[in-house]
């Protein structure tokens, strides 16, 4: 746990070279991370993530489907979040930009097509949640260092432990998660 947390923190902080970062990510992909390592990676992401605040006592669910978008299915995550909010839930829907190899449509892109921000800043995510009970959180805007790791994923061509753990960031202090995992060949 501690080694994975420290290595991920150094990666996010830009304290390692691109070669070191790539070697670490590929080695973990080949070896396969254990539960404690995945938890350490997730904790490092949580440690680095922007603290998003919210009012109210309604329990919040963090909904994270295909973080990097859907290529072969309709991107219904935002619609599902809005339905849950209409039923009284508070929902934080997290995503990043399109990433390879599929380069699918993300929740933020759906929001942008509807007239919202395509890359909401943390304050915009907080305002969305207060206004309608649903917030889109973009990791590129709310998690320093995340975009550099996403660029490495594009270059390496493999998803790694950070791309599983990114779904476990507790945006708005979430303690409930609905997580999609569609990579049967990984994990």
How would you describe this protein?
The chain has a four-stranded parallel sheet with strand order 3-2-1-4. The model has no long low-confidence stretch (mean pLDDT 87). The two termini are 17 Å apart. By secondary structure, the protein is an alpha/beta fold. Helices cover 46% and strands 11% of the residues.
- What is the straight-line distance between the termini? 17 Å
Shape: globular
User: C-alpha Rg, in Å?
Assistant: 16 Å
- The spatial strand order of the largest sheet comes to 3-2-1-4
Index terms:
single chain; 187 residues; alpha/beta; 4-stranded parallel sheet; 4 strands
Topology:
Elements: H1 2-12, H2 18-31, H3 35-48, E1 60-64, H4 77-86, E2 90-95, H5 107-113, H6 122-132, E3 134-138, H7 139-142, H8 146-156, H9 162-165, E4 176-179
Summary, kept brief:
The protein has helices at residues 2-12, 18-31, 35-48, 77-86, 107-113, 122-132, 139-142, 146-156, 162-165, and strands at 60-64, 90-95, 134-138, 176-179. The mean pLDDT is 87.
């Amino acid at each position: 746990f501690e080694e994975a947390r420290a290595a991920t923190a150094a990666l996010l902080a830009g304290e390692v070279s691109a070669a070191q970062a790539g070697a670490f990510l590929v080695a973990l992909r080949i070896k396969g991370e254990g539960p404690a390592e995945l938890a350490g990676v997730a904790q490092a992401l949580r440690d680095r993530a922007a603290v998003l605040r919210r009012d109210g006592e309604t329990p919040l669910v963090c909904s994270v489907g295909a973080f990097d978008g859907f290529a072969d299915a309709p991107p219904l995550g935002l619609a599902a979040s809005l339905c849950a909010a209409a039923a009284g839930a508070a929902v934080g829907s997290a995503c990043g930009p399109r990433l390879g190899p599929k380069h699918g449509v993300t929740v933020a892109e759906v929001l942008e097509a509807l007239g919202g921000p395509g890359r909401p800043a943390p304050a915009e995510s907080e305002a969305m949640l207060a206004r309608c009970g649903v917030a889109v959180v973009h990791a590129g805007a709310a998690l320093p260092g995340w975009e550099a790791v996403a660029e490495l994923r594009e270059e390496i061509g493999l998803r790694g432990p950070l791309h599983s753990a990114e779904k476990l960031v507790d945006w708005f202090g979430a303690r409930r998660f609905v997580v999609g995992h569609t990579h049967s060949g990984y994990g």
